[in-house]
Amino acid sequence: MKIGIIGGGSIGLLFAGYLARNNEVTIYSRTETQASILRSKGVTIEQNNTSNTYRVQATTSTNSVSDEEFMIIAVKQYVLEEVLLQLNDLDKIPTVLFLQNGMGHIDALDKLKNRTILLGVVEHGALKIDNARVLHTGIGKTKVALFRGDKDKADLLVRENTTTFPIELHSNWREILTSKLIVNAVINPLTALFKIKNGELIYNRYFYHSMEALYNEIISVIHPVTDNMWQQVCEICNNTAENKSSMLRDVEEGRKTEVEAILGYVINEAKRKNQKLILTPFLFEGIKGIEDRGKYNG
């Protein structure tokens, strides 16, 4: 299968490497510099003191994508609109999978003309080392669900499921995105503001109380789809105890965060339901303030 991947970040490289084992993969990068390196060196996935390199094609994201059979869009949500505007021939691709955090991009999908649209959440830990190397810091799952179109197209991706790169097909896209949104909304802003690894949220009783209070406020707006959602949040903190959240890494490296796609969505939902929030706006303003401090370099 000819698979295109928009985005040369940690998730884009991770997917490119694993999917290149059985498919013809092209990475559409933001810069020609990265594309050139990928063409010459391929994608290297490092994990548990092992290193495997996979050959891929690469070009810039402004080039035509019409030759692909399956497109994976793995960019941050805050640049998604810009990317979609650049891809003039995206509608010629039969199947597109979106892998964004948050749920702010859902309304835009109805405007797309692609026959099959899939939505996914990624639970893997991945850290981009350089333009061609990614560290697979933790094996999780990729959960995929049909937004509209042909379910058989989703099955094509699920066939790539392996023990090191599990892919699951789910029946309800809203359920998987809602669960991921709650996890991200609880863990990411607190770790970014306190500048702590995920595990400290459960090992430090004061941070734990803050996490619990934030969770209760968020689920008053975004209702969990399972009864054990709090347990899932705590388990993720424990299983990724030594990991830094993506938002913390963005803060440390002076990048823009996805707080608008995550907490911003919660705040907008609360306004729509005429609910008053306290902790969520405080955290939102705190993270935006850090971005605006002069560290954010675009």
Describe the structure.
- This protein is of the alpha/beta class.
- The chain is 43% helix and 21% strand.
- The protein has 12 helices and 12 strands.
- The strands form 2 sheets. The chain has an 8-stranded mixed beta sheet with strand order 5-2-1-6-7-8-11-12. It has a 4-stranded mixed beta sheet with strand order 4-3-10-9, covered by helices on one side.
- The longest helix has 22 residues.
- The chain is globular, with a radius of gyration of 19 Å.
Number of domains: 2
Please, what is the CATH homologous superfamily of the largest domain? Answer: NAD(P)-binding Rossmann-like Domain
Low-confidence stretches: none
The quaternary structure here is single chain
> Largest beta sheet: what is the strand line-up?
5-2-1-6-7-8-11-12
Biggest pleated-sheet summary: 8 strands, mixed
CATH topology of the largest domain: Rossmann fold
Gross morphology: globular
| Helix coverage percent | 40-55%
CATH class of the largest domain: Alpha Beta
Structural class: alpha/beta
CATH architectural group of the largest domain = 3-Layer(aba) Sandwich
Secondary-structure element series: EHEHEEEEHEHEEEEHEHHHHHHH
> How many distinct beta strands?
12
The portion of residues forming beta strands comes to 15-25%
Q: From the alpha-carbon coordinates, what is the Rg to the nearest angstrom?
A: 19 Å
Mean pLDDT: 93
Q: Separation of termini?
A: 35 Å
Q: Quickly count the helices.
A: 12
